[in-house]
Specification:
By secondary structure, this protein is of the alpha+beta class. It has two domains: 143 residues, Jelly Rolls (Sandwich); 69 residues, Arc Repressor Mutant, subunit A (Orthogonal Bundle). The chain contains nine helices and twelve strands. The strands form four sheets. A four-stranded antiparallel sheet has the order 1-10-4-7. A four-stranded antiparallel sheet has the order 2-9-5-6. A hairpin with a 2-residue loop joins strand 11 and strand 12. Helix 5 packs across helix 9 and helix 7 crosses helix 8. The mean pLDDT is 92.
Length: 220
């Protein structure tokens, strides 16, 4: 019980709750540890739990009709994972796949109990709406990346928005995620370096001009 409470307290989502309310959340929750490369859920799975990522890193993706993996976005620690379209039902439908990129901890919260104890009493409603809006923003970024950005804009956006993960992954994996060729990624990085926007030290990218990087993908 105390371990579960500690995990609840690590999540900013629950920061405004009293100690008594933290106890209520802990009683409807269960922390689960996952190893790297394991799957949290598959597309079309259903669940009666809300998932929060306490620590670790998740990759969210879909599979096309040719069995190719289409990367959508990453989910970082201290975040709501679950994809929600309605709070009227007690069942949550999964619209994508979620795979752990490192050893992680998920806090599972009973969705029905959470709604009864909090949302229906107008507690945590703002936090819940903010978490859902963040999901919408992530999907907007996916649309821009896949339908609007060219290769340079894709790289610039990831460097600005996701530098830690960019440096953590192999360049080939980054290319795969951005749907560009490794040679293209290499050329873009060299161009950004020549322009003084980034520096490359021992394969790690350092941003020297964040404004110029933003201007690339904003089309300014």
């Amino acid at each position: 019980m105390q371990e579960t409470k500690n995990f609840v307290k690590k999540l900013k989502f629950f920061n405004t709750l009293s100690d008594d309310d933290i106890d209520i959340v802990a009683n409807m929750s269960k922390p689960v540890k996952y190893v790297k490369n394991s799957i949290l859920f598959y597309e079309n799975d259903t669940s009666d739990k809300l998932y929060f990522l306490v620590s670790g890193l998740l990759k969210v993706y879909k599979i096309d009709k040719y069995d190719n993996e289409i990367f959508l976005y990453h989910i970082y620690e201290d975040s709501l994972v679950s994809e929600l379209t309605s709070i009227q039902m007690n069942t949550i439908y999964c619209f994508s796949n979620a795979e752990f990129l490192e050893d992680s901890i998920i806090l599972e919260v009973n969705f029905h109990q959470f709604k009864t104890q909090f949302l229906e009493k107008n507690i945590l409603n703002d936090e819940f709406i903010d978490a859902i809006l963040l999901k919408t923003q992530q999907l907007h970024c996916v649309v821009n990346r896949e339908l609007v950005f060219d290769a340079t804009a894709k790289v610039a956006f990831m460097l600005h928005d996701d530098l830690k993960t960019f440096n953590k992954l192999k360049r080939q994996d980054v290319s795969f995620m951005l749907h560009i060729q490794p040679e293209t990624l290499s050329r873009v990085l060299k161009k950004l370096k020549r322009s003084g926007i980034i520096e490359i030290e021992q394969s790690n990218i350092l941003i020297k001009d964040a404004i110029a990087l933003q201007n690339i993908y904003k089309g300014l």
